[in-house]
Input
Amino acid sequence: MPLQPITKTRLSEAAIEQIKELIVSEDLEPGAKLPSERDLVEALGVGRSSIREALRILEIMGLVEVLPGKGAFVKALTGDLFIPLSEILTSQKESLQHHFEARMVLEPAAAALAAKRASAGEVGRLGKNLENFKENLARQNLVGLIRVDIEFHRLVANATDNQTIAVLMNTITRHDFHGWKAALRTNNRPRKTVTEHGRILEAIASGDEKKARSTMRSHLLAAQRNLGLLKAS
Output
């Protein structure tokens, strides 16, 4: 199937659909290399930023793997969003535990630092992110929820005004999506996340370091309990 220039409003979403169609129509096997960013830009008639966002979301979906300096490769035709959650929890429990252990070390402290240092602009971006989460929840757009959830935690890290923390958080979000994908698939977790993110945002906006730390910690613990990684208290 030849790729066609895109004219839709949400360019990245349209690009996602065409890349998925390319994978299916060309019967690309896992490990097959996709066209380069430049080729996709030229074929689809959109900007490089739209292509990068599309590839990132496809990576979140488990359809492709993006290797820096090498390109994007087909990972699976169905994506692990379609694998039963119980199967993921059985096969990846240890990696999920490691994911949350790392975040428990980093994120409560990052939230406290963000409460101390966040600018008005950074608080505004967190507020806009929360509204985007609500919109995706209303549409029951799981992929959108995952993307916006990841963005929220990166925005908190950025608000610390500490480049090392921001880089560490970016590394976690770029290379370890399992925690976000799994947690947001549990019953009522997206709806609870709206409330929990709101509390974290409120603490950061008010400059309450202690509350920011505790609300972020509670948020991460709740996600782990929903996944059965911790016993409910």
